[in-house]
Specification:
Layout lengths: L9 H10 L6 H15 L9 H18 L8 H8 L8 H4 L7 H23 L1
Helix pairs in contact: 1-3, 3-6
Length: 126
């Protein structure tokens, strides 16, 4: 199991936000700090803020890649971010999305795929 604290590391969250282009204004910085605090205090709720979900998804993706781990190594309360929805109603406080997969989530995944491909193409040209 990957320690929960790795997922709320502020430097990781900040790097993910920059990579996604979600850290451009003072308001974005405030939202990132709010996400960090919500994670620290176990108050984060999936599907309340698509930008926060996107940042946390990117952090989970990076950690899984670094550790050659899979989703079962992620703390249960954060797995809904990776899976994009509810965890069977077991604990509505953490993953209590009304929808299994919201439209914002699908749009984020599509954007993320486009962004990743564009980065790969830029690197291959360099």
């Amino acid at each position: 199991m990957i320690p929960y604290a790795e997922f709320y590391n502020y430097d990781r969250l900040e790097s993910a936000a920059v990579e996604l282009g979600l850290l451009n204004t003072e308001a974005d910085e405030e939202n990132l700090l709010n996400l960090h605090n919500q994670l620290v205090w176990h108050l984060y709720r999936f599907d309340k803020d698509p930008r926060a979900d996107a940042i946390l998804y990117a952090v989970i993706e990076a950690i899984l890649g670094e550790k050659a781990a899979d989703i079962t190594d992620v703390p249960w309360e954060l797995r809904c971010v990776w899976e994009g929805g509810d965890k069977g109603g077991r604990d509505g406080n953490h993953c209590g999305s009304e929808h299994t997969v919201g439209t914002d989530w699908l749009l984020f995944l599509a954007h993320r795929a486009e962004h990743t491909e564009a980065c790969r193409q830029r690197k291959s040209r360099a």
